[in-house]
Amino acid sequence: MRYSILAAVVAATIGGAAVADASVVYSYSNPVGGASFSYTASDFITSNTAISGAATNSCSVFGFTCTSVNFSFSGAIATISASSLFQSPFGSLPFSDSSTFNAADLMTPGAHGSTSNIFASLTVTQMGGAVPEPASWAMMLAGFGIAGGAMRRRRNLAVSFG
Predict the structure, then answer these.
(1) Which of these, 37, 72, 67, 71, lies nearest to 54 by C-alpha position?
(2) What is the model's pTM?
(3) What is the CA radius of gyration of the chain?
(4) pLDDT of 126-139, one tens digit each?
């Protein structure tokens, strides 16, 4: 009885066990096309996604700040494109760069080469999510303690034959 009350108090105090939020960092580089960007997403990008240049960690096309980064999917192919706009006294001049990758590359951590440009590369890094939060560890330790306490208190039954 004592241990069931203790278990209820521990569970109410600590809360549910949860895993820390994971994020995915996409780093694109194309030295010949003049584009590079880094973008942190809350999860793997699996569908058409348009991102403003301001939402990226860093982004430039030929040295100009990006206006947008787009991920578009067509079957097993994913196209990544970055665009910038140079404002001059004579008007605006757009710059852009795009490369294609296998769609599975966007969901697989590691470095990936482009299928359309030998100079372009994409690095996918999955961050966090692998280490449980302290509440998870506390719940696990409390459970072991309660189970150990219950086993220690169990009365031995005498077995008689005959």
Answers:
(1) 67
(2) 0.66
(3) 27
(4) 887 666 678 888 88
